[in-house]
């Protein structure tokens, strides 16, 4: 996928959004912001509250990650921003257009992929792309040209003329995202785009998202993978029970929670169990056998490190390293929501 970033410009030279008079250009309140929510709430029948007083902004050409456990309100927010749901309260603006009063103009400015690939299983990858291009108003000739560009760009030449039912999960996701880009969007909504993908396919999607950002496309990404948000996002919004509990960059969130951890790595991995036992009475003990580390919450900073070192030294365990570190995004998420991700 390394060549994707180099040639991504070809995604934006075949066709532009339709223009029909001066109304085609968004009356953007601020050109620096492409998404803005003010006091947005959503209540479903039966009084079920999915979102409560949500306010946030997303700058143009950035990647914003929405984090939250199942039922936190991530998909509801995406559905409101993409005009699939109307908010019960508040106001949402996308690309300068109100999602309720100017829904058609919002839809002409966005693209979206859901958790499941929206493809016709009886068609090939190429035929799917041509179909989506035709649905977006392209001529037959331009639709085929666009499909060819996207197939090459997404490294799918070898499989373009096979039925999508023969595709792996990663290949299917690439064609699904390509279909969302047949017309260049201002905003791309990705609802858990790497769920169920193997690590290699997940990295391929990450490369693609990074390349899109480099060409001015704003990406709003929902994910339950904390590493994904850490790697890709310029900003993070943490949702819990329909409310925004924290927002900022990954570094902001890690600093703001005011926590630190003492991490110990023994020379001999067999000593991990001994270390866990000797610090078991301390807070939030975590053993990572793949990374060969034991971490404990360090509420007293270096004093906690000194205490951990004293205990481990009494065991006679030789260490590779002992250090004080900031929390990971996983630990921040757990602290903010009290729940682990899937």
From TrEMBL:
Matching Pfam families: ABC_tran, DrrA1-3_C
Q: Which InterPro entries match?
A: AAA+_ATPase (IPR003593), ABC_transporter-like_ATP-bd (IPR003439), ABC_transporter-like_CS (IPR017871), ABC_transporter_ATP-binding (IPR050763), DrrA (IPR005894), DrrA1/2-like_C (IPR025302), P-loop_NTPase (IPR027417)
What are the protein's UniProt keywords?
Antibiotic resistance, ATP-binding, Cell membrane, Membrane, Nucleotide-binding, Translocase, Transport
Q: Which residues form the signal peptide?
A: none
User: What's any one GO cellular component for it?
Assistant: plasma membrane
Question: Which cellular compartments is it found in?
Answer: Cell membrane
- Kindly list the GO molecular function terms attached to this UniProt entry: ATP binding; ATP hydrolysis activity
**GO biological process: one example:** response to antibiotic
For whether the record's keyword set contains Transport, the answer is yes
Query: What's its membrane topology?
Result: Peripheral membrane protein
**ABC transporter domain: which residues?**
35-266
Family assignment from sequence similarity: Belongs to the ABC transporter superfamily. Drug exporter-1 (DrugE1) (TC 3.A.1.105) family.
Entry's PANTHER family? Answer: ABC TRANSPORTER ATP-BINDING PROTEIN (PTHR42711), DOXORUBICIN RESISTANCE ATP-BINDING PROTEIN DRRA (PTHR42711:SF19)
Protein known as = Daunorubicin resistance protein DrrA family ABC transporter ATP-binding protein
């Amino acid at each position: 996928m390394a060549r994707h970033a180099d040639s991504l410009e070809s995604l934006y030279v075949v066709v532009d959004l339709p223009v029909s008079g001066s109304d085609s250009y968004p009356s953007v309140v601020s050109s620096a912001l492409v998404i803005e929510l003010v006091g947005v709430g959503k209540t479903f029948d039966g009084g079920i509250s999915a979102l409560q007083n949500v306010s946030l902004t997303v700058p143009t050409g950035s990647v914003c990650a929405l984090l939250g456990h199942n039922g936190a309100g991530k998909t509801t927010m995406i559905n409101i921003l993409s005009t699939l749901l109307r908010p019960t309260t508040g106001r949402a603006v996308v690309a300068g257009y109100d999602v309720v009063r100017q829904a058609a103009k919002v839809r002409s400015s966005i693209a979206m992929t859901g958790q499941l690939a929206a493809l016709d299983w009886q068609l090939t990858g190429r035929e799917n792309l041509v179909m989506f291009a035709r649905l977006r108003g392209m001529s037959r000739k331009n639709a085929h040209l666009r499909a060819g560009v996207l197939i090459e760009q997404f490294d799918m030449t070898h499989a373009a003329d096979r039925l999508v039912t023969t595709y792996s999960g990663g290949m299917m996701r690439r064609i699904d995202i390509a279909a969302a880009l047949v017309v260049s969007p201002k905003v791309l909504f990705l609802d858990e785009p790497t769920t169920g993908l193997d690590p290699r396919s997940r990295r391929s999607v990450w490369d693609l998202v990074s390349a899109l950002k480099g060409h001015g496309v704003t990406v709003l990404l929902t994910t339950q993978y904390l590493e994904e948000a850490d790697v890709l996002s310029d900003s993070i919004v943490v949702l819990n029970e329909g409310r925004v509990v924290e927002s900022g960059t990954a570094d902001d969130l890690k600093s703001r929670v005011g926590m630190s951890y003492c991490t110990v790595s023994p020379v001999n991995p067999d000593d991990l169990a001994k270390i866990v036992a000797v610090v078991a009475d301390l807070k939030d003990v975590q053993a990572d056998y793949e990374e060969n580390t034991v971490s404990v919450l360090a509420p007293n900073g270096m004093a906690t490190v000194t205490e951990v070192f004293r205990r481990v030294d009494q065991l006679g365990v030789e260490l590779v390293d002992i250090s004080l570190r900031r929390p990971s995004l996983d630990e921040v998420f757990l602290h903010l929501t009290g729940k682990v991700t899937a």
